[in-house]
Design brief:
Number of domains: 2
Largest sheet: 7 strands, mixed
CATH class of the largest domain: Alpha Beta
Structural class: alpha/beta
Distance between the termini: 26 Å
Bound molecules: pyridoxal-5'-phosphate
Strand content: 5-15%
CATH superfamily of the largest domain: Type I PLP-dependent aspartate aminotransferase-like (Major domain)
Order of helices and strands: HEHHEHEHEHEHEHEEHHHEHEEEH
Shape: globular
């Protein structure tokens, strides 16, 4: 389906049509100057030129401990409770191999980031979807998970602020997750890709700030989106020391760690000023408002998200995710992501990414308004 959409986009572009993509979630702005400067200095330092340690540089682990203390009120032991990851994607994938055997189950938010289902499948295990629906504010109904499934479950993947729905975590939900995980001995993997990308005064919590969370879970913190560092592959896993150690043991057999200059750039990002992040969030909020207003004008019932770089909305009556994405492409030459790309429960929705320059977003929503009403 995705290949078919890409083929159509390429065809239109070859005909000279100006196609605007609102599909991919990859920030359009450059990485903050102070991070680039730190990288320049770090890469000139010969101590970063050898094989990195898979445990991570002390500066990196200490910076994360400071950041988690100051930003989330979470105590992290830099010796045992944090190591670098080559992006959240690598980390989530390898966690599947560290924790899942054939026959095991991973509970995966659906719609969700595709590695939550591909990782378990490649590890020979089974991903069981946890439906995220608007009626339940896009949190899974934990009481609806069957006993047999819970018995086989080893991992649960959650992510708030959420890609693709833009939902934020309701009060008390993480507490219930901790309870469930404790009762059924499931490792919680909270994918924290968007805690620094929020709007309207909303401040996102860390899962690890939940009482008891460190006993049952880990959080994967990625610098990709919030710090505009998708190309740098800079993330960390934090939390339960035993789980971090299992991941480390697997990982030492697979890769040789995160470039130490990138680790030092990550330190600069975490220790850096908040203003650039706030300015970036103001830009996204402005784009979000443009998109939400235009969608409402064409009759789409859409909630304005308080976090992430996505607007998630239901397709108009009579459409599937794919048929609507095709219509928007044909009529407006705008690419949107069919919700069904993110799991069965994404059917009936579409996702718009806010990572396109302002004037292109304005042009895209203008075209949608003109050609879809
Ligand atoms: C973008 C994204 C990631 C990717 O993180 P990397 O650190 O770049 O691998 C992970 N999870 C979610 C939910 C994302 O949207």
């Amino acid at each position: 389906m995705f290949a078919e959409l890409s083929r159509r986009v390429a065809e239109k572009r070859s005909q000279g049509i100006d196609v605007i993509s609102l599909g991919i979630g990859d920030p359009d702005r450059p990485t903050f100057d102070y991070v680039v400067e730190a990288m320049r200095a770090a890469v000139a330092n010969p101590s970063t030129h050898q094989y990195p340690s898979n445990r991570g540089r002390e500066e990196f682990r200490d910076a994360f401990a400071r950041f988690y203390r100051d930003r989330f009120g979470v105590q992290i032991d830099p010796e045992r409770e944090v190591i670098p990851a080559i992006g959240a994607k690598e980390c989530i994938y390898n966690l599947c191999f560290a924790f899942l055997d054939p026959g095991d189950v991973a509970l995966a938010a659906d719609p969700g980031y595709p590695v939550y289902t591909a990782g378990p499948a490649l590890a020979g295990a089974q991903a069981v979807p946890l439906p995220l629906v608007p009626e339940l504010n896009f949190v899974p109904d934990l009481d609806a998970i069957g006993e047999q499934t819970l018995e086989r479950a080893r991992l649960i993947f959650l992510n708030y602020p959420n890609n693709p729905t833009g939902a934020v975590v309701p009060q008390g939900f993480f507490d219930r997750v901790v309870e469930l995980a404790r009762e059924h001995q499931i490792l919680v993997v909270h994918d924290n890709a968007y805690s620094e990308t929020t709007y309207d005064g909303y401040v996102a919590p860390s899962f690890l700030a939940t009482p008891g969370a460190k006993q049952v879970g880990v959080e994967v913190f990625s610098l990709s989106k919030g710090y505009i560092m998708t190309g740098w592959r800079c993330a960390a896993i934090l939390g339960n020391a035993e789980a971090v150690d299992s991941y480390w043991r697997l990982k030492t057999n697979i890769d040789s760690g995160l470039h130490e200059a990138v680790q030092l750039a990550g330190v600069a990002a975490l220790d850096g000023p908040r203003e650039p992040l706030e300015q970036m969030n103001e830009i996204y909020a402005r784009r979000r408002d443009l998109v939400v207003t235009a969608l409402r004008e064409i009759g789409v019932q859409v909630n304005s998200p308080r976090g992430t770089i996505y607007v998630w909305a239901p397709v108009p009556e009579g459409h599937t995710s794919t048929s609507f994405a095709e219509l928007v492409l044909d009529r407006a030459a705008v690419v949107i992501s069919p919700g069904s790309m993110y799991g069965d429960n994404g059917e009936g929705f579409f996702r718009i990414s806010l990572t396109t320059p302002d004037e292109r977003i304005a042009e895209a929503v203008g075209r949608m308004r003109d050609h879809l009403t």
